[in-house]
Every structure is written in C-alpha cells, then in structure tokens.
Amino acid sequence: MALIVQKYGGSSVADADSIKRVAKRIAEAKRAGDDVVVVVSAMGDTTDELIDLAQQITPLPPQREMDILLTAGERISMSLLAMAISNLGVEAQSFTGQQAGVITDSVHGKARIIDVTPSRIQQAVDAGAVAIVAGFQGVTQHTNDVTTLGRGGSDTTAVALAAALQADVCEIYTDVDGVFTADPRIVPSARKIDRITYDEMLEMAASGAKVLVLRCVEYARRYGVPVHVRSSFSTHPGTLVTDAATEEGAPMEQPIIAGVAHDRSEAKITIVDVPDVPGKAARIFEVVAGSGVNLDMIVQNVSVASTGRTDISFTLPATDGAAATAALTRHQPDIGFTSLQYDDTIGKLSLIGAGMKSHPGVSARLFAALSDAGINIEMISTSEIRISVVTRADQLDDAVRAVHTAFDLDSADEQAVVYGGTGR
Amino acid sequence: MALIVQKYGGSSVADADSIKRVAKRIAEAKRAGDDVVVVVSAMGDTTDELIDLAQQITPLPPQREMDILLTAGERISMSLLAMAISNLGVEAQSFTGQQAGVITDSVHGKARIIDVTPSRIQQAVDAGAVAIVAGFQGVTQHTNDVTTLGRGGSDTTAVALAAALQADVCEIYTDVDGVFTADPRIVPSARKIDRITYDEMLEMAASGAKVLVLRCVEYARRYGVPVHVRSSFSTHPGTLVTDAATEEGAPMEQPIIAGVAHDRSEAKITIVDVPDVPGKAARIFEVVAGSGVNLDMIVQNVSVASTGRTDISFTLPATDGAAATAALTRHQPDIGFTSLQYDDTIGKLSLIGAGMKSHPGVSARLFAALSDAGINIEMISTSEIRISVVTRADQLDDAVRAVHTAFDLDSADEQAVVYGGTGR
C-alpha cells in the first residue's frame, strides 16, 4: 500500500462532468488499496473570471484582498470534488491550505512555502478518507492571512505536501502525456520522456518547458519527492522525474540528451560603449537588480583596445523590459554608456542532458546543426548539463527542429498530442 | 465617534457597480468620523449558482463540503468590497468568519454561534481601517471546520459581531426602507415603523415578516444591540429595533399595535377522533417532535361527551408536512386516532403590539374586522403582545388589509416601495 499525492489542474476539473471523471479516477486509486491525497486547482476559467471582477472594481487591487478573492476558486473546486468522490461511495473531505497546514511567508500573490504541517490530512488518511487539498494557497505563520503561491502554485502545493507526508509519489495530472523531448506543436516527432533527473527537469523548466514550473521541481529535488507527470485523460504512464534517469538495476547507459526546450518570452538589452574599467559591469547589474529584474544570459564583447570601451548584452523576461530600461536610463550618467538597444524579437533554444557532461563534442554538434539550417547564433551560455543559444525569434522553430533531429531525438512515428501549459 | 456595524445583503452587492456604490457609502461613514465594521453576504445569485453546481455533482452533497462550497461566495464579495473601499483612499481589510473569531457549533448548514472573539477586527479598527467580515460563516471550536449559519446568517453575524465589539448600532441594509406595518405588496398604504421593541420585532419575525430573521432579533435582544433596518438605496432613516419603542424623553404614548404580519408557509394537520384520555395529546406531540418538526399553533376541540373522543389540530411549516404525516401514520395504532387531514391552503395573520397588553378589546376589534370582511377564523392563538388567526389562504390578503385599516395603521399617502425578502 502506497501513499499517493495526486494533483489535478484547472482543465481537469473545468466543469461538473470533468469533476465526476476525475472523482472516478481517484476512487479507483483508493479502491486499489492506496492512500490518496489530492491537490486541486480552481475550475477552468474561474481564476480569470475572478481577476476580471477585480479589474472591474479597481485597476490596482491590494494584493492581500486579491489573494482572498482568488482562493475562492479552489474552495469551489475542492468541495465539489469531495462531493463527487463521496457520491461514488468513497469517503472524502476537503481542506483549505490553512487546514492542510501550508504555512507561507507574507508575500501576497507569490508567497513561498515555509513549512507544511499536514496533521489533519494525515488524520483523514489514517481514518480511511481521501483528503482533497486546495492548491495554490497557504496562510501566514502568525497572522493567519490567506496567501497565494503564484504561477504553478498548485504543483508546488502537491510536491510540498508529498514531501511532508513522505508520500511514495506525487502524480501531476495535466492535459499532456508527460514531458517531451521538445514541444510537440513545433516538433511533431517529439518523444515522451519516460524518466528524467531533477537536474535535467530543472534546466528544462528554467529554459521554457511549461509542463512543470521551476520552483516545483526545486522543491521535489530538495526533498527527493518522485514526481510523475501524466495525463488525466489516459492511464498511460507519463514522465517520472527522479534522482536517477534509469531504474535501479537497469543498464546505466543513459541518453546524452534529455530534450530541447525553447523560450519566446525573453528580450535582449545591449548597452553600447561602456567604459571597460573595473566595476562598470557590476554597476550595471546592480542597477538592473535594484529594479527587481532577474537577468538570464549575459555576454560581454571583447573590449576594443583603441577606445577602451565595450558592449554588454543580457537577456531578461520581456515583461521586465520597461523596468530595466528605465532604471538603466536613469543611471546613464554614472555608468557612462553611449546608448541602449532593446530587442524583444529573440528566441532562446536550450539543449539539456546530464549525459553531455561526459560526452565531448555536444556543443560542436549543436552549432553545426544550426549552421547547416542557416540559423545565426547571437548569444551562448552553458551549464554542466545545458547549452542555450539566442536566435532570431522567427528562426526559433526551425532551430528547435534542426537540433532535435541532429541529436536523434525524433521518434519513429509522429505523436498526436496536444501540448499545453499547466494551470496554476 | 461611534462604532457602527453595517450589514449589506446580496442584492446590495450584486455586481461591480453595486459594490462600488456600497463602498462609497461605507467610505462616507468612515470619513464622517465613525469606526466602521461591515458584514457582507455573497453577491446576488452566487449562492444559488453554487448550489446548482453541487446539484450537478450529486443530489445529496455532504453538508460539510456544502458549507465549504457556499462560503466561497462571501470570500468573493468581501475581497471585492475591500478593494473598492481601498480604491476610494480609505484603508480596508477583509476577514473570513474564522479570522473574525466567529466560533460555532458543528451543525453544518445551520450552525449556531457559540462565541465571537473579534480581536483581529478590533485591531484593524484601532489601526484606522474599515474591517469587512464575511457573513453567514464561522468555524467549529476545536477542528476549525468551516460552517454556515443558515438562512439569515449574515444578519446574525452582524448582530453577534456588534454585540462582541460593543458597537453603538448594527445597521442592516436591505432593499426596503425598514420594517412596515404590513407587507406593502399587500397593503399599499402600509407605513414604515420608526421604532419597534425587540419583543414586537420577535413576534413579527416569528409571524412571517421577512425583513429580519428570528434568531437575529433574539441575539440582538439578548445582548441589547440596537438594530437599524434601512435601505441601501437611500439615506432615509429606517426602523430602529431597540428595547423601548420611544426615545428617551419622548412621550411614552406608544401605539397599541406595531403591525400586521402574515405567513403563507404553514400547513394544518387535523387528527380526527383521538381518545380523550390523559397522555394522548402528549404522545402526539412527542411523535411529531421526534420527527424533527416544530409545531406552531395547537387547538384541541372540546371533547364530544357521548364518544369520549376529540379532534386535535396544529399548524407547522408546510415543508415539514410530509415528515410529520409519515411519523403520525406510523404511530396510528398506539395513538388510536381514526384519520388524519392535511391542509396546506391556510394562511396565518398576526396582529402584534406591546400596547395590546394594557388595552382591552384588541381581540374583539380584530374579530369584528375579520367578520365584517366575511373572513372565517379557523384557529386562534395569543401571546401577551400578539394575536394570530388562521384563515383560508385565498382570503389572507383581504384579511391583512381589513385588519390594517381597522387598527388605523394606514398612512395618509400610499408608499411606493418594493418589499422583498433579505438575503442570507
């Protein structure tokens, strides 16, 4: 008998019929002899509708009130799901984030989990019930104020709860069959990955793969929670995210490359003619960080000896472009650059695989593939298990396809899947 | 500077525009120098929509889950109202029933308030903020389970909070101008009552007046909370419910009659040919009480000497008719009655006024008025400040008008108000 934490996103519980279908699946897992704890997101478009209501009231709603408003969504889905399971003759009780012991800091709108003390969930499970827990929400430690966890919050709730309950697995149900070697909308021959390491999954998530958010994978890695990403529309096994890419006892010959991720949400800022003296680069990144912006890739050109000046480029989320540009322009006098170029028509491709550590020639093969496809590389950055390149946005799809093929990731037959983002 | 608790029902916060209108009213009260605590119901039809969703899932939803589901409604309205007030530059924070310290028993769906410990509300008020509290909801003492208070629950929340905060007044905002001498839909010349005692208001509520529920008035009387029932669509004073029908210093000549209430929701059961021996009536009411039904009026006819048998009639909520009938039929052998008649085409008229205690002839005048109007009286019951009669349902409106006129309650000019029930 195992303890399983299952998480269902908004599209899996979009209406009464979907809720009944999910309830049947949960009841079957329970009847098969496992203990089941379920984390659920708000129904379908509920969150968007609530945001819209708030916008009708005020363009800048206070975040504390916004969190109270949004958490109404999970309250509705969790109670309906508990009703649907009870209706199948399986006992079920729903619990708010607070009742489930999800304690967070007080950063409304994107709170971080500090601790999970799920004694009530454990009690419900011990008593033979299925516990349904509201995803995406928690309470602050001392004031019991309601908080939300931000994007991907329900996935994070599920993994955190699985860690606290020492669950055997955390199953993340979504509308795709698992994690793919590339986005099947761009690469129809992309293959589902059966197993992937936390490190690879982290790099995939950080590089634009949308199936799991970064913080959820970070949490799973820190606490060693096996995460099973699978479809709520089929019973096929999905992708197991764990600390070894192969099963114990299986041959350790793991594939070099896990997959190709892409990201279209970044922009590039180039700061032209920066005096090439110590401290100038540091000053730039200080200014940018001070505006609350996270940088991604950074490239400093070789200094032109005759002028003693250089260009510095970096990428950042396009949504932060205005803030960073404004901050830099404000500090133009003390940094001493000539001009600033902003470019949001870039794309980023990342090749990820723990195998590349021990296999030389991966980057050579990547660059050759891109070159053969006539794609120009504007920036490069690497980690031990990832190589990322920046291209023109309109060449990104071609780049992903070329690289996917060059590393033998194409499957024999084309998949017929719809690839979408997860809910919150 | 006073501390005012205001309660707004669902129709007052039905959409974004209504919420903004109510927010303006609250902000004005706050700017006028008073401390303001607001209790709010769910928006318009939200509760019905949530009930409908539950019905799509299962015909018999577990009450615990139903309570979690329904409390989502106040979460939405309270956070939106807090946003709207903040948007006007007045600080506002919303609080759930739990955060406001509303502790109840564990009878889901119609929990009773055990205690109110509003330390967080007091803190918010002391800090200069308007506190918005979810009506209709609380939590159980030890398990922190979410409960709802049943019909009229938000009014009860408001009065209970006003008592705990020792507020100067509890203002119940509704879609009518106050409490009327009769339902203006039936008696267009009905007058708004300026002041009414708790006792009279209790009898009004118990006799079918829908503007305030019984438990809310009971709570107000027990803790001496002045309740001001008024319209959210105007600034006219409404009806003040308090312990003296006249202001201090004002002449004590209070009107004999406060008003005429009517109730169309009852049914009558007549048990025919009951053996007129001690204990039989007690046995009947034991059986009915055992089925969870509350009786209202009871009449036992004079025993027919030749047979030693009698008829017993009582009224009860029509919704309890099936349960009571089934219980009595099951016990027909040991009670020993011949037959049972069920009649749900009755109406009840009640004349209420603390003045009738000291004014003889009130009942004579009532019966004369009904007789003159050609209306037959089927049952009568009286208390110190109330006389109730049962008539045919289709004669009830005529009866109300006749009695209203007979006791000089008609106003000079007809009111142009719409009289409706309150929200929850």
UniProtKB/TrEMBL annotation, chains A, B:
Its EC number is 2.7.2.4. ATP binds at residues 7-10, 174-175, 185, 210-211. It catalyses: L-aspartate + ATP = 4-phospho-L-aspartate + ADP. One of its GO terms (cellular component) is cytosol. Substrate binds at residues 47, 74. Pfam families: AA_kinase, ACT_9. Residues 269-345, 351-424 form the ACT domain. Keywords: Amino-acid biosynthesis, ATP-binding, Diaminopimelate biosynthesis, Kinase, Lysine biosynthesis, Nucleotide-binding, Transferase. Pathway: Amino-acid biosynthesis; L-methionine biosynthesis via de novo pathway; L-homoserine from L-aspartate: step 1/3; Amino-acid biosynthesis; L-threonine biosynthesis; L-threonine from L-aspartate: step 1/5; Amino-acid biosynthesis; L-lysine biosynthesis via DAP pathway; (S)-tetrahydrodipicolinate from L-aspartate: step 1/4. InterPro entries: AceGlu_kinase-like_sf, ACT-like_dom_sf, ACT_Aspartokinase, ACT_dom, AKii-LysC-BS, Asp/Glu/Uridylate_kinase, Asp_kin_monofn, Asp_kinase. Signal peptide: none annotated. One of its GO terms (biological process) is diaminopimelate biosynthetic process. GO terms for molecular function: aspartate kinase activity; ATP binding. PROSITE patterns: ACT, ASPARTOKINASE. The keyword rRNA-binding does not apply. The keyword Calcium does not apply. Belongs to the aspartokinase family. Catalyzes the phosphorylation of the beta-carboxyl group of aspartic acid with ATP to yield 4-phospho-L-aspartate, which is involved in the branched biosynthetic pathway leading to the biosynthesis of amino acids lysine, threonine, isoleucine and methionine. This is Aspartokinase. The lineage of its organism: Bacteria, Bacillati, Actinomycetota, Actinomycetes, Micrococcales.
